[in-house]
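hi got a favour to ask and not much time before my train. below you get a single protein, a line of residues and a line of whole numbers that encode the local backbone shape. could you go over both lines and see whether the tokens make sense for that sequence. a few lines back from you is plenty, here it is:
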Amino acid sequence: MRPATSFTCPRTTIPDRAPEEPHDHRVVYAHTRATGTVAQKGKDVKKYLLGAAALFVITACGEKAAEPAAGTPAEDEALVSGLVLENMDKSVDPGDDFFMYMNGAWIDQTEIPADKASYGGFGILNDESQERVKAIIEDSATGDFPKGSPEQMVGDLYQSYMDWETRNARGLEPLEPELERIAAIDSYDDLAVYFAEAVKRGMDAPLGITQFADLKRPTHYGIYAFQSGLGLPDREFYFNTDDKSVEIREKYVAHIATMFDLAGLPDGGTAAKTIMALETRLADENMKKEDTRNWAANYNKVPFDELPELMPNFNWAGWIETAEIDTDINQGLIVVTTDYVRALDGIIRDTGLDTWKTYFTWVALNQRASTLTEALDKQNFAFYGTVLSGTEEQLPMWRRAVSAVNGTLGEVVGEVYVERHFPPEAKERMLELVGNLIRAYEKSIKELDWMTDETKVQALDKLSKFKPKIGYPDVWREYDFEITPEDLYGNLERATLAEYEREIQRQGGEVDRTEWGMTPQTVNAYYSPPMNEIVFPAAILQPPFFNLEADDAVNYGAIGAVIGHEIGHGFDDSGSRFDGDGVLRNWWTDQDREEFERRTKRLVEQYDAFQPFEDLHVNGEYTLGENIGDLGGISIGLLAYKMSLDGKEPPVIDGFTGIQRVFLGYAQVWRNKYRDEALRNLIQTNPHAPSMYRANGAVRNVPEWYEAFDVTPEDDLYLPPEERVKIW
């Protein structure tokens, strides 16, 4: 069971990078120089290309870089700031573009690697993590290990991915059983059954299925149904009228036709038009991504005997049986996108079976392409990698193979990764920092001037119940499915089916709170509202996020802001609808919710104004949760740092005060460059704003930033005090 691209289980993460291999490079199927000018605060904000990336840079009118505070040589030598000074461009006024002030020299000097859609802190750490994992895998790939042992499974899976000779020789043969299942669809009842069968085997269907904590009863699992089945990244890709969107649609149709031809399937051109027409109709009924974040409105548990009222013509009995949903254990199906599901009933009946067969043939071919022949893999990348994200070359085979192993046997590798690369003192220090950040949030909530005491009591109760997970799980996963060295397709399919059965065996049962949604070697972090937990894998706990050798200030601005960001998700526009026990319920007074929404509306407007292309701006509504997280992250990170000083004056290091270093540490985290295509794709599909706006957008709302860097009304990022947003 798994979510599709248009539906997100209530887990939020911090990265903003475009995927290096977009679309279906899911290795376990179960488990995604244009010039212009805009005006801002009376100044021209020009957009320049930096290397191959379209990046927003503010041209200063009278440049006045903040003067670093003077420090003694002894102070400078005694402590390490954690700032990479050679990355800075001090010719930039920090009040005009704080992102470029901290990262401008690196931006100017760095070329995006040919196999990357974007490049920066996250990508660099991810590369390093993959290199470490490769070493672990190679240890497993060179020995003689018993069948079914972790070493044998890891080594043979890696080998099967790398073996182009076998994959090319087999051609389309591994896919033939799936194509036969599709060809055997002989009625609309059969079609409903295949909807479930496709999901079971890790492929998209217009009606998706996943298992997750029941949001109204988060101690137990629930079964969710939701919109799915699109080949383009988002519904808007089917309807936007700008030239770039039109071009993408044309290239998508051509891509489908080419894939059919490469696979030896008939009438590729006709099939492509048929598929595009059906996907467009599905997209037209899809809930907009901005609306999918409203869990209070989208939670709809429908008793099984009432499902025919939603889709009267759908073979629910066959779908439920094939999906192995136990109607005695589960209290009903949680339908997330109700209007879409209602509309789907008509779409199914209005569409001929031959069209549905053509559509599912494309789904199977598209989502298995990277496991089949080299020709199909390259063509798949040509569209999803190059057209959508501008990536010039595919990642090296070994990196793709490492991703396959990480996605399929992640915790087997993760256990060794932790032993080799995660020092115990890092976990101890992180737990200390988390505690400090929670205390800072407590202080901030108690002192809020816009929230009533009634709601504060509930907010503080929720805060007290936050559960941190640091580094790695306490209980490691075991994997039980066959891996052979010459059958990549079969390996991944068996892994997918095993994962599905593992999930289905737990349906209706108590949620396993020891599980992690990410492996230790993942450079990321997340918050889960129904678990009320914040999770920081081992791989993110290194510079620029976390530096055990550095002074506290940069750590509070970097990993402290990340911690604050994730805690902040518990209080963003979506997470704030869950209480401290993870229950989806309203714990706000009407007055406080109204004031919260008034403040967040101003934040939406601020981010809407960021426009890197003449025809495209940041979606402030869709990115709102992450923007609230960023604002809370730097605000509370700064407060926690101040509290940690206990009234002592912090040292000046590298010429910067402690407060300045907190903000610079925050900006340093978001060092990143994008290709034009990747930046466009990110803005249209990702709930995170691009990196430069995450750096600039948050700090301009924090009063201490103005004082620290002498920001005045003449500066581009300046906001009058009455326009600055404070939430937490």
About this structure: The radius of gyration is 26 Å. The first helix runs from residue 73 to 78. Residues 556 and 641 are 6 Å apart (CA to CA). Confidence is low (pLDDT under 50) at residues 2-8, 16-77.
